[in-house]
Design a protein that fits this description.
The complex is a heterodimer of chains A (about 300) and B (about 260). By secondary structure, chain A is an all-alpha fold. Helix content of chain A is about 80%, strand content about 0%. Chain A has two domains: about 1-55; about 60-305, MetI-like fold. Chain A contains eleven helices and two strands; from the N terminus they run ααββααααααααα. Chain A is flat, with a radius of gyration of 27 Å. With about 260 residues, chain B is α/β, with parallel strands linked by helices. Chain B is about 35% helix and about 25% strand. Chain B has ten helices and ten strands. Chain B has a six-stranded mixed sheet with strand order 6-7-8-3-9-10, with helices on both faces. The chains are: A mainly alpha (about 300), B alpha/beta (about 260). At the A-B interface, helix 7 and helix 8 of A face helix 2, helix 3 and helix 6 of B.
Chain lengths: ~300, ~260
């Protein structure tokens, strides 16, 4: 008995010693993670700060409201490129949102149904799922080349908003499909069962309960896509062309902010204007991210309060 | 004696190759409370879901034998129409993330009712029937998710009533509730049985004893295939069961 209690005392001592060591070890790793975190944040602040400071001096009302003059000097402002950016974002999402949301609804809500039980269909569906995964990781220039080959040359849409929006829709479709799929999967099956048990059809269940509950996720996907369209360059270089004039129809060429930035940096000596354009872009991206945050908070407020 | 509302004849259900229910024949009387009791995994919830064809939603399920409602084969009825006639309350309260009003109005709305005045009437009547009206009448715009668990469950009952069903299936409706909320639900079941045929699955034998006019005892052996052992008036099941297994279960020797 006595032997046992001294043994236990020894164990306790060893445990206390070990705990001290573990505390030191923990402090070390926590400090290291803090350091990494600080480095990451600093890089971010440095990049954004540099662009904003450098570009900020170039930004004024005139810069924002006059069109670029073109040529090597890079004179003029960025008004038409802001306009073109908005047009392109709008047109791209007009095409991509219904397609993407519809595809996700099919894949999640209908593809698993028994009535679609044929082998052929099932393998088509797994191919579709695989394709969505893969397409999300393909470099945007590939979409650009595809868009160029199909929309610009074969379908003869030329360098135009239409070609660019179609190519851009291909680019953001995987994003919209994936975020919508995740949003739909996050809707508890209790809601679906509850609705069906009340004598609602499957479509009514989707339309009245599942879709509203997944709206925050879907909107997040859409806003992410907006950011993608705003910031992509390569894909639009080969589909939208580079006209710095304001497009007056969807068959006109144009220049988004990011594209304009590229032209300024590569073809002109107007480095300050490039920085100014960059600053406007960065501000837009920040605003979009704040918007995502706001929207998902606002819309999930009602849903998250469950239990 | 009693009119039969729901009936199964030699009813079996399979999940793929696995037989979950075997040869069940039962006549559930109209406007009475019938409790389905038995140990876990004996198929009583699966059996309950047979009456509103919710099992149809599970891939790989097929059935043999027949299920009748008012003498009519339920597999010949449109499942959507069937579910409007056979309401269901789930184990976990499942309000939609909508206001209390919209939760109750959901069923009438999906069946095509648009008149707001009518909807208001239905919402009030349903909430009154579910003994919830006085607690929520000033807050109908509040989210259904903000109610307590017991209130949520009564709201779900009101939601089912709003579609004017004749049958209400309840799958352990008080399993996630505290004793006081449970008591309220039981009182409610008792009141509703005047106008509705209620089938309730419960793990709680005292509950079956308190609320049910009739009790069906389900049992399963190693095969995990559920079968109906005994069905009778609750009094008889609890005081003089005919089957040994029923007696063992009732007296708490297993389960």
């Amino acid at each position: 008995m006595d032997e046992r209690s001294s043994e236990i005392a020894l164990i306790h001592k060893a445990q206390a010693l070990n705990l001290k060591k573990e505390h030191r070890r923990q402090s070390f790793w926590v400090a290291l993670m803090w350091l990494f975190g600080l480095i990451t944040v600093s890089i971010l602040i440095l990049v954004v700060g540099y662009v904003l400071l450098k570009g900020g001096t170039a930004i004024n009302w005139e810069f924002l409201t006059t069109p670029p003059k073109g040529g090597l000097s890079g004179e003029g402002g960025i008004s038409t490129t802001i306009g073109t950016t908005f047009y392109l974002v709008g047109l791209t999402l007009l095409i991509a949102t219904p397609l993407g949301v519809g595809a996700a609804m099919f894949l999640i809500e209908y593809a698993g149904e028994q009535s679609l039980g044929s082998k052929f269909l099932r393998s088509m569906i797994s191919i579709a799922n695989f394709a969505v995964e893969t397409l999300a990781g393909i470099p945007s220039i590939i979409y650009g080349l595809f868009g160029y080959a199909l929309f610009v040359s074969t379908l003869k849409f030329g360098f135009s908003l239409l070609s660019a929006a179609l190519a851009g829709a291909c680019l953001v479709l995987p994003t919209i499909i994936r975020t919508t799929e995740e949003a739909l999967l996050a809707v508890p099956d209790d809601y679906r069962r509850g609705s069906l048990a009340l004598g609602a059809t499957k479509w009514q269940t989707l339309y009245r309960v599942v879709l509203p509950a997944s709206t925050p996720g879907i909107i997040t996907g859409i806003i992410l896509s907006v950011g993608r369209v705003i910031s992509e360059t390569a894909i639009f270089y080969v589909t939208l062309g580079g006209s710095y004039r304001m497009p007056t129809s969807i068959m006109d060429s144009g220049r988004t902010l990011a594209l304009h930035l590229y032209y300024l940096a590569m073809d002109t000596r107007a480095f300050d204007k490039a920085m100014g354009t960059g600053a406007v872009l960065v501000v837009m991206i920040i605003l979009i991210n704040l918007l995502i945050d706001f929207v998902s908070r606002k819309l999930t407020a009602g849903v998250r309060r469950v239990r | 004696m009693n009119d039969t509302k729901l009936e199964t004849i030699n009813y079996s259900l399979y999940y793929g190759k696995f037989r979950a229910l075997k040869d069940i024949s039962i006549k559930i009387p109209k406007n009475k409370v019938t409790a389905l009791i038995g140990p876990s995994g004996c198929g009583k919830s699966t059996f309950l879901r047979s009456f509103n064809r919710m099992n149809d939603l599970i891939p790989g399920v097929h059935t043999e034998g027949s299920v009748l409602i008012d003498g009519e084969d339920i597999f010949k009825v449109d499942p959507v129409a069937l579910r409007q006639n056979v309401g269901m309350v789930f184990q976990k309260p499942n309000p939609f993330p909508k206001s209390i009003f919209e939760n109750i109005a959901y069923g009438p709305r999906v069946t095509g009712l648009k008149d707001h005045h009518k909807l208001e009437e239905i919402v009030e009547r349903s909430l009154r029937s579910a003994a919830l009206w006085d607690e929520v009448k000033d807050n109908l715009g509040k989210s259904g998710l903000d109610l307590s668990g017991g209130q949520q469950q009564r709201m779900c009952i009101a939601r089912a009533l709003a579609v004017e069903p004749t049958v209400i299936l309840m799958d352990e409706p008080a399993a996630s509730l505290d004793p006081i909320a449970t008591l309220k639900i039981e009182d409610l079941i008792h009141e509703l049985s005047a106008n509705y045929t209620i089938v309730i699955v419960t793990h709680n034998m005292q509950q079956a004893g308190r609320v049910a006019d009739f009790t069906a005892f389900f049992y399963t052996d190693e095969s995990r295939t559920g079968q109906l052992v005994e069905f009778d008036e609750t009094k008889k099941i609890f005081t003089s069961p005919r089957d040994r297994r029923t007696e063992d279960y009732i007296t708490g020797r297993f389960g």
